[in-house]
Amino acid sequence: MSAATVSRQFARAALRTSARQTFATSSLQAFRQGGRRFYSSEQPKKSSAGPLVYVAGAAVAAGAGYYLFTQSSVSTKVFTPTETDYQKVYNEIASRLEEKDDYDDGSYGPVLVRLAWHASGTYDKETRTGGSDGATMRFAPEGDHGANAGLKHARDFLEPVKAKFPWISYSDLWILAGVCAIQEMQGPTVPYRPGRSDKDAAACTPDGRLPDAAQGTDHLRNIFYRMGFNDQEIVALAGAHALGRCHTDRSGFEGPWTFSPTILTNDYYTLLLNEKWHIRKWDGPQQYQDKTKGLMMLPADYALIGDKAMRPWVEKYAKDNDLFFKDFAAVVTKLFELGVPFKPDTKTIIFKPTNA
Ligand code: HEM
């Protein structure tokens, strides 16, 4: 049995509980009733908007958190979502994660985390551009940037959720999905604040703002310092690579970092330190391989243990999963909120995981 098969079975067994089964059924019905699908790569419509659209635009501009919908031109209702409404969105995503377990290692969770990170990781603190406020990856050119290859799977996974809860912006939805995926994959509690509004294609960020996996820590510092992170935070964020895998048809790299790619643990750090990594012999891009040949590390991952300032953090997180969870929750919250103009009275929501 291959390592991938073992980990897939392990992940499925770990995630399958009778409580979740209930969600799976209701979600299946919701999915079937989903109605019209919206395509995330859809170009923004030409402005032939009637007055109602301008009213809605004004509401969004006045502050996120409101959704205006109309049955006719006479009745206009303002819907202000509550914490319970956001928890419903969370539950819907969690139930779809449970239901659609035939993807990759048994879960869309990792690719949802990657979507939330790539939406946020374009932030530039000098120009205050990019970041999760806008969801501009829906449009070319940003959706077509090499770094975003494969994220259409995550965006499409969320379309039925958007159709069921049309009041939530794509930008709030993608981040909520990242939070949900982390918690459902047994990671730490990640506090969430809504308030992002969708922007049009004109707000797309230039290519090159996300890290290049073939490079070392000088490059990582350039990229992450631009967002406002320090060395410890870079190492804590990299621990997300306990999740998911590389795909030859996306980044060109291949394989998972850990044996349990759908469960968040500090295994990324323990493996990085304790395995003997050698350069893989293949005709793909340079990457590292363990002796079982089942696991991989990117040059950018491997560089962390060769860096004097970063290595001590790899060692700390390898020794202490609680410390990793505490620091990861803090840094991922900071990442997901980069550049978001929250209203001062925005309440933080702590979502209840479905496996609690
Ligand atoms: C430190 C710099 C980083 C580099 C160079 C990097 C690079 C990559 C690459 C090349 C892949 C494989 C994509 C594919 O082929 O599908 C990947 C996947 C992934 N990355 Fe990163 N990444 C970085 C940081 C992060 C951060 C900060 C997070 C989240 C907090 C993250 C979360 C993920 C996840 C969850 C996957 C798996 C996606 C899947 O299974 O489809 N990465 N990353």
Automatic annotation (TrEMBL):
CDD domains xref list: ascorbate_peroxidase
Catalytic activity: 2 Fe(II)-[cytochrome c] + H2O2 + 2 H(+) = 2 Fe(III)-[cytochrome c] + 2 H2O
SUPFAM superfamilies: Heme-dependent peroxidases
Domain of life, per lineage: Eukaryota
Any one Gene Ontology cellular component term annotated for this protein: mitochondrial matrix
Region (Disordered): 191-213
Subcellular location: Mitochondrion intermembrane space; Mitochondrion matrix
Alphabetized UniProt keyword annotations: Heme, Iron, Membrane, Metal-binding, Mitochondrion, Oxidoreductase, Peroxidase, Transit peptide, Transmembrane, Transmembrane helix
Main location: mitochondrion
Function: Destroys radicals which are normally produced within the cells and which are toxic to biological systems.
Family: Belongs to the peroxidase family. Cytochrome c peroxidase subfamily.
Subunit structure, as described in the record: Forms a one-to-one complex with cytochrome c.
Listed name of the protein: Peroxidase
Biological source species: Xylaria grammica
Lineage of the species this protein comes from: Eukaryota, Fungi, Dikarya, Ascomycota, Pezizomycotina
